[in-house]
Structures are given as C-alpha cells and as structure tokens.
TrEMBL record:
It comes from the Eukaryota. PANTHER family: AQUAPORIN OR AQUAGLYCEROPORIN RELATED, AQUAPORIN-7. The gene is Aqp7. It is found in: Membrane. Keywords: Membrane, Transmembrane, Transmembrane helix, Transport. It catalyses: H2O(in) = H2O(out); glycerol(in) = glycerol(out). This is AQP7 protein. It is a multi-pass membrane protein. It holds the Pfam family MIP. Belongs to the MIP/aquaporin (TC 1.A.8) family. GO terms for cellular component: basolateral plasma membrane. GO terms for molecular function: glycerol channel activity; urea transmembrane transporter activity; water channel activity. The chain crosses the membrane at residues 67-88, 118-142, 154-178, 205-224.
Length: 251
C-alpha cells in the first residue's frame, strides 16, 4: 500500500506531489513496517523469491511454501485494490476513464513494473537479476551474526534502507520489481479492473521477467554470500569463552 500509493501520487499528481525519491521512500517504509508486522509471526516472508530460496536451501519446509505464496499473493492483490479505490477519482480524472498500459496517460505502471522504452528484454532481465542478488546479499549481511550483524531491532529498518538504496540506484530501467509477489498480483488486478490483457503483452510480454529473474538473482545472492563471506566467518564464541578457545562440557 505504501509503495503503490506513492507511485500513484507521483503519476496522478503529474510530479507535483512527489518524485522518484518519494516512490523509493514509500517502498522502503512499507518493507520496514511489513517486517515489523510479520517478523515475529512468520519471519516476514514478503518476497516469493526469498521464500522459494529458503525452501531450496532447506531453511523452510516445502509444505509451508503454498501458504506463504497465497498470503503474499492476497496481500499484494489487496494492496492494489486498496490503492485503486483510494485514487479512483484521481485515476478517472487523469485518464478520462480510459485505463491504458502505454501512451501519454498510461497508469498500469502505478501497480506493476514495466521496462523503460529503451530497455531490451535481456537488459531488463539482467537489471532485475542484479538488483535481487544485491537484495539477498544485503539481507544476509544484515542478519549475519557470525560476521558483523546489525544490532537487534534494527534489521527491519536496515532492510527498508536496503530497498531504498536499490530503488535509488537501479530503479530507472525496470522499476525494480525484485519480488514476484510484488509484481504479479497487482498485474492480475489491473487485468480485471479495466486495463485488460495488455498488462501481460506490454514490453514484449514483460510479465514473466519479474517472476523468474528475482528467483535466479536470489539464488545468486546466497551463493555469493556463502563463497565470499560465510565460508570465511569465524564461529561465534560460546558465552563466557574467548573466541577460538575450546569449550569444556561437564555432565
């Protein structure tokens, strides 16, 4: 809701009520609050690519995957519907009732990502891959207690800042989906809310890239962290013992 509504305000306000920075701040704040809301309940799985990566790595049982994906889909779909209702009057005024995916009054990009006109399909795929790789790498670093992990209680804020940084540096080409469950449900919503099936054909059938590239980027981020950081981490010392000293167990 925070992210999509910030996009809506920039687009429908014709730049008078925010710019690129405000969109990135909106998504960063939304991620921070989402982690605070669900972190203690479910681990705050807001991203389908991350959830699938955890399943592949054995950190999350596969039997939980459907429930997490359904929750992510419903949450994102409901967010799109909420923003649509919140800004319906502004949408109608901006488009004169003609909801389009492309053109001078295109509004589908409020809800889902679309590549810039100059970006090739390969270039867009690479952008999403790299952005999600850095997202996963950053998250793992923030939570890496064996290295230099963030202070307890600051992880949510730092993850929000991480998303902000990705948007500030890599948002121009594709709108940085970096999350299948952030992109597909709102796209489905726009398809049934008046934009039609153009949401799946625009940008050379762009819709599948935000589904696949983040998953591959997520796995790459885990690999890089494992090879260049985790393998070189020193074990966390046991309580009351200096690092590197053996721990004597007594019965």
């Amino acid at each position: 809701v925070f992210g999509l509504s910030s996009v809506a305000q920039v687009v429908l306000g014709r730049g008078d009520f925010g710019q690129h920075l405000s969109i990135n701040l909106g998504f960063g704040i939304g991620v921070t609050l989402g982690i605070h809301a669900a972190g203690g309940i479910s681990g705050a799985h807001l991203n389908a690519a991350i959830t699938l990566t955890h399943c592949i790595l054995g950190k999350l049982p596969w039997r939980k995957l459907p429930a997490y994906l359904i929750g992510q889909f419903l949450g994102s779909f409901t967010a799109a519907a909420t923003v649509f209702g919140l800004y319906y009057d502004a949408l109608y005024d901006y488009t004169k009732g003609n909801f389009t995916v492309t053109g001078p009054t295109a509004t589908a990009s409020i809800f889902s990502t679309y590549p810039a006109p100059y970006v090739s399909l390969l270039g867009g795929f690479f952008t999403e891959f790299i952005a999600t790789m850095l997202l996963l790498l950053g998250i793992l670093i923030i939570h890496d207690e064996k290295n230099n992990g963030a202070l307890k209680g600051t992880q949510a804020l730092l993850t929000g800042i991480l998303v902000l940084g990705i948007g500030l540096g890599m948002g121009m080409n594709t709108g940085y989906a970096i999350n299948p469950s952030r992109d597909l449900p709102p796209r489905v919503f726009t398809a049934v809310a008046g934009w039609g099936m153009d949401v799946f054909t625009a940008g050379h059938h762009w819709w599948w890239v935000p589904l696949t590239a983040p998953i591959l980027g997520s796995l790459a981020g885990v690999l890089i962290h494992k090879l260049f950081i985790d393998f070189h981490n020193q074990p966390v010392p046991e309580s009351g013992n200096e690092k590197g000293q053996p721990v004597v167990e007594t019965s």
